[in-house]
Amino acid sequence: MADKPNAGAGLRGQSAGSTALCTVGKTGSGLTYRGFDIKELAEKAKFEEVAYLLLKGKLPNQVELDAYIGKLKGLRGLPAALKTVLEQIPASAHPMDVMRTGASMLGNLETEESFEEQQDVSDRLLAVLPSIICYWYRYSHDGVRIETETDDESVGAHFLHLLRGDAPSELHARVMNVSLILYAEHEFNASTFTARVCASTLSDMHSCVTGAIGSLRGPLHGGANEAAMDMIENWTSPEEAEREIMGMLERKEKIMGFGHAIYRESDPRNAIIKGWSKKLAEDVDDTVLYPVSERVEEVMWREKKLFCNADFFHASAYHFMDIPTKLFTPIFVCSRVTGWCAHVFEQRANNRIIRPSADYIGPEKSQWVPIEERD
Ligand SMILES: CC(=O)SCCNC(=O)CCNC(=O)[C@H](O)C(C)(C)COP(=O)(O)OP(=O)(O)OC[C@H]1O[C@@H](n2cnc3c(N)ncnc32)[C@H](O)[C@@H]1OP(=O)(O)O
Ligand SMILES: O=C([O-])CC(=O)C(=O)O
């Protein structure tokens, strides 16, 4: 990918603060959470262990992890007033808007009264966000009021269970676990920065998370996994995919799921989720979507030296698990809420209101004209 100057647009390359949570694009190890390489976490950890690492500052021992999983399980229920609100939202709504409303409504019902409650508030959000999206989805699409308090051991299995009504296979639970780990944290990305800006005014956790959900929704950020799916599902062969991609590049269209603001050569999360997408493709005897995705990857590298980011192979992986496309980005929320909350803790612990300057480019002096004399 061509290097652009760092200064100016998008604050690219400028440090906007410090963090002990994550490194992105550091030579030698593409992505670390509190010093742990993402590859090792994705292979060995439970998502709840990673959430604990991010939110509490260290890996839990077995007793601590068991207690944490037990605590999260106990926080999956929805207050009646929140269910009532979710039931008002039409099936045509975008699920990210449902997530935003859900987080905001929870803030009305379970207000963070002081920063001393921040750990509990974050654990509650982590536990309840899958319940929020699945309760709305099942009610608006299937007309059923589901029970959200399942006994599933993991956040990922809980999500799939609520969505389908049955506990998921071991393979699907494993892929969800890996996916949630990969999406959990990524330094000063747009949604996390949104959360930190909000936190810097000493606002409450629900406001920080609600704002972050709004930032994640866009197709240049978390929404890219859905946009990538909308694109690749149109193609029935690698040859067709290649022809279409070449046309899009010629027309200077953006290819969703490719490129990155920080990584220059690859996104370390891609190889991991791509491997799981391949396994799932074999599981469902896919002969189209995975080969199409691989061809798009090859063409983008050959033509533009652009690589898949975390979102591209998430599209096929989620699709193979029968997850509706419009729920892809909400799953990202269910994971990234850990990173957002951990960043809010950091911001609060060493706060100064975030308030940069702007280069003024407007008129020097404007002349007041009475309203009746204006054009
Ligand atoms: C989990 C995540 O949020 S990962 C990101 C998810 N987003 C996407 O997949 C959306 C598609 N990708 C993009 O829009 C961009 O690559 C971003 C938003 C991720 C990064 O944006 P930037 O930092 O501005 O990109 P960058 O400066 O490196 O771009 C370099 C050049 O490559 C082009 N480019 C970058 N990504 C793409 C793409 N996906 N398709 C086509 N061209 C692209 C840019 O237009 C730019 O060309 P130019 O110099 O002629 O203007
Ligand atoms: O870091 C970024 O700009 C976007 C990203 O990959 C993420 O948030 O996971």
Automatic annotation (TrEMBL):
Annotated GO CC locations: cytoplasm
Protein name: Citrate synthase
KW Transferase (keyword) present: yes
Pathway: Carbohydrate metabolism; tricarboxylic acid cycle; isocitrate from oxaloacetate: step 1/2; Organic acid metabolism; propanoate degradation
PROSITE patterns linked: CITRATE_SYNTHASE
Gene Ontology terms: biological process: carbohydrate metabolic process; propionate metabolic process, methylcitrate cycle; tricarboxylic acid cycle
SUPFAM superfamilies: Citrate synthase
Keywords, comma-separated and alphabetical: Acyltransferase, Transferase, Tricarboxylic acid cycle
Active-site feature positions: 260, 311
Matches recorded under InterPro entries: 2-MeCitrate/Citrate_synth_II, Citrate_synth-like_lrg_a-sub, Citrate_synth-like_sm_a-sub, Citrate_synthase, Citrate_synthase_AS, Citrate_synthase_bac-typ, Citrate_synthase_sf
